[in-house]
């Protein structure tokens, strides 16, 4: 049963991550022609496009992607509860679906910031992966940089963002 739970978690979490990335890439107006952006768009289009007929855009916000992420979170919770033979109330399913999506979003931010910090030590010119990491994480790190005084070329914004993410995860019990 544990192996089945693992497999269900992995499949749904990967789908949720792709949808969160799609939403995030649109929010930061990342380069659509970047190979990573192209992959995310193509991987999520089969699920987002039909939903977009029902759930319209709200200005420039892709509400359909957010709804899809929450629906995937609910499907994950329902599948896990069916496999493990326990019943849940609709309110519990909605709450756990939202928490599941939030947990994946925080984990995604955490790992992208860590990868960006590590790549900054070894960077050798332009790289499409590094460019998209910069576009995704810079809106989160720039406000921290404005609050911190200059540290002689040392950028502590990534470390402080990582600490903040871990604090929020522990605060929410994720």
Query: What is the straight-line distance between the termini?
Result: 22 Å
Total number of β-strand segments?
0
What is the average of the pLDDT values? 89
**Unreliable segments of 5+ consecutive residues:** none
**Count of distinct structural domains:** 1
Rg, alpha carbons: 18 Å
Give the DSSP E fraction (strand runs of 2 or more residues). Answer: under 5%
Largest sheet: none
H/E order of the elements? HHHHHH
Tell the overall outline. globular
Helix/strand/pairing class, anyone?
mainly alpha
Oligomeric grouping of the chains: single chain
Helix share bin:
over 70%
The count of helical stretches stands at 6
Quick recap of the structure?
Helices cover 77% and strands 0% of the residues.
Characterise the protein shown here:
- It is globular and about 55 Å long.
- It has one domain.
- The protein has about 170 residues and is mostly helical.
- It is built from six helices and no strands.
- The longest helix is centred in the middle third of the chain and has 33 residues.
Topology:
Blueprint: H1 2-27, H2 35-52, H3 63-83, H4 90-122, H5 128-147, H6 157-172
Helix pairs in contact: 1-2, 1-3, 1-4, 2-3, 3-4, 4-5, 4-6, 5-6
Structure keywords:
174 residues, mainly alpha, 6 helices, globular
């Amino acid at each position: 049963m544990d192996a089945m739970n693992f497999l269900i978690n992995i499949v749904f979490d990967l789908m949720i991550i792709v949808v969160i990335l799609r939403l995030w890439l649109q929010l930061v107006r990342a380069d659509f022609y970047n190979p990573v952006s192209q992959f995310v768009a193509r991987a999520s289009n089969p699920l987002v496009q039909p939903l977009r007929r029902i759930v319209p855009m709200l200005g420039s916000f892709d509400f359909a992607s957010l709804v899809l992420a929450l629906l995937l979170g609910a499907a994950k919770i329902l599948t896990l509860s069916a496999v493990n033979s326990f019943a849940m109330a609709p309110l519990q399913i909605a709450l756990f679906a939202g928490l599941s999506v939030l947990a994946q979003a925080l984990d995604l931010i955490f790992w992208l910031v860590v990868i960006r910090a590590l790549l900054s030590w070894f960077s050798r010119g332009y790289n499409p992966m590094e460019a998209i990491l910069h576009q995704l994480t810079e809106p989160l790190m720039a406000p921290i940089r404005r609050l911190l005084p200059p540290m002689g070329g040392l950028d502590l914004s990534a470390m402080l963002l990582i600490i903040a993410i871990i604090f929020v995860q522990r605060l929410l019990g994720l």
